[in-house]
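Input structure tokens:
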């Protein structure tokens, strides 16, 4: 590690409040304002979780925790909301760094997710005329400490279920769906989610588990499935009585967890007679910050 290296941690971003939802949604849609009905639906989802997402506050805490542990100045860049990736890159350049170690707060790699963050970092540096070494951490989906953390949280969620329901319960590991076309390019995203689930299931000796996908976008293109709501319906049809959702593709509480799982999935499960529990998000748990710091430290040292 040297004084000329900076760490850049990145996340998707979130609106500051309900008044900011339209600008945020427009940014996601590449500058195209959303139709009024879709905008209102998104606002209603934020209202259902209290009016705003805690993502920004949690991510700031994660950044601070990693910086404290690795001893290297660490910056935050968001994809669709301030503080933006380009602004963080400009700040790093102004500080005189000549190397960036980039970490996206998502454990699984896809060219459409982690790859896009990297493209944005490189574009920002190029547009600033700044020659900088950019070392991206592509994925950390099998990091032992992360697998251990997931095992602990799956175990706790299973224990939360009614005892007699626990015997007829399936654990569903989820991540944000992406358009199916990524699979034809050899993108490792789906395989990495499966590898994470396999590792947890093997470590715990799970009797019943599977993969589900959630939070698919509203486009004409087909998205990777099965959707988590379809999985829940299928489990009910098969006579299962409980389901534990482990959204291992997400590391913070935000809309896709607090609404899509805690409200929408729970409602569907309840209507079908299933008990549903969700594993707690890693957020700024010190054990999780230790995991992230270890990943970053190895990249800083050139050993990972």
């Amino acid at each position: 590690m040297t004084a000329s290296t900076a760490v850049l941690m990145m996340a998707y971003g979130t609106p500051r409040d309900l008044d900011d939802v339209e600008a945020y949604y427009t940014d996601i849609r590449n500058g195209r304002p959303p139709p009024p009905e879709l905008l209102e639906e998104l606002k209603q989802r934020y209202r259902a979780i209290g009016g705003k997402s805690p993502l920004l506050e949690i991510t700031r805490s994660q950044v601070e925790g990693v910086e404290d542990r690795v001893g290297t100045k660490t910056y935050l860049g968001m994809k669709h909301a301030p503080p933006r990736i380009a602004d963080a890159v400009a700040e790093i350049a102004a500080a005189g760094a000549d190397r960036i170690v980039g970490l996206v707060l998502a454990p699984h790699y896809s060219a459409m997710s982690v790859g896009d963050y990297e493209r944005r970092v490189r574009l920002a540096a190029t547009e600033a005329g700044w020659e900088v070494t950019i070392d991206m951490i592509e994925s950390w989906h099998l990091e032992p400490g992360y697998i251990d953390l997931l095992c602990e949280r799956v175990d706790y969620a299973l224990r939360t279920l009614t005892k007699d329901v626990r015997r007829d319960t399936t654990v569903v590991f989820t991540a944000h769906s992406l358009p199916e076309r990524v699979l034809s390019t050899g993108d490792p995203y789906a395989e990495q989610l499966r590898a994470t689930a396999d590792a947890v299931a093997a470590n715990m000796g799970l009797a019943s588990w599977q993969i589900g996908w959630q939070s698919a976008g509203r486009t004409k293109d087909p998205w990777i499935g099965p959707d988590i709501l379809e999985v829940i319906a299928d489990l009910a049809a098969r006579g299962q009585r409980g389901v534990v959702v482990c959204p291992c593709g997400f590391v913070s509480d935000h809309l896709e967890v607090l609404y899509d799982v805690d409200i929408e999935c729970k409602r569907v499960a309840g209507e079908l007679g299933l008990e549903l529990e969700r594993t707690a998000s890693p957020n700024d748990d010190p054990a999780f910050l230790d995991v992230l710091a270890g990943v970053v430290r190895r990249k800083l040292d050139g050993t990972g």
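The first strand starts at residue 5 and ends at 11. The chain has a mean pLDDT of 96.
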